[in-house]
């Protein structure tokens, strides 16, 4: 993901060159609200280039073991995502290439990111680590769609898949798959741990109840009788 983010950053710097018009912008113009669309595009690109690496770093054990830094950088990431990435993404989604089907995919991804980032902030303030971890997994999962979708588009292009069909699959596939994978990863460990804890509690209960049921002296006497 970090490598993919770096590649996207390298190819996205052209959006901030005042003397260059990127091919993506050329094929999208003229837009009905061109000035708003261009402003949203620049804000979205800048927010994505900073928030994706930042969220990836926040998932590392090294930073999670440093609560003060994790808290500060998490607040920065939350502000960027909630007040720049998601709003600009909604504006771009309404004018997305590919029509209503693609627009719906972008809006769904934006809704997931916005909802779970807000949940991540709330659960972090409540010190609910498990819920905070699940929420941030959803955020990172949806943000990773930008990398996975580009990789899929390259593969579809090499395979000769129709561009319109490839664009829909490359968007909806990662969006749904990321949400599903996060739920499986978040719920499976909890269920396994809960089952293991129940088993351990039962074993401990049986072990610690033995002295009250079986007295050591009676066990010794039984063995002596068997010896006779």
Architecture overview:
With 228 residues, the protein is mainly α. The protein has one domain (2-178). The chain is built from 10 helices and no strands. Helix 3 packs across helix 7 and helix 7 runs antiparallel to helix 9 (163-213). The longest helix has 51 residues, at 163-213. It is globular and about 65 Å long. The model has no long low-confidence stretch (mean pLDDT 82).
Keywords:
228 residues
Radius of gyration: 27 Å
Cα end-to-end separation: 74 Å
Mean pLDDT, rounded to whole units? Answer: 82
Record field, number of beta strands? 0
What is the SS-derived class? mainly alpha
Name the poorly predicted regions.
Answer: none
Level of helix content?
over 70%
Sum up the overall morphology in one term.
globular
Quickly count the helices: 10
Count of separate structural domains: 1
Element pattern in H and E: HHHHHHHHHH
What amount of the residues lies in strands? Answer: under 5%
Sheet with the most strands, sense and barrel status: none
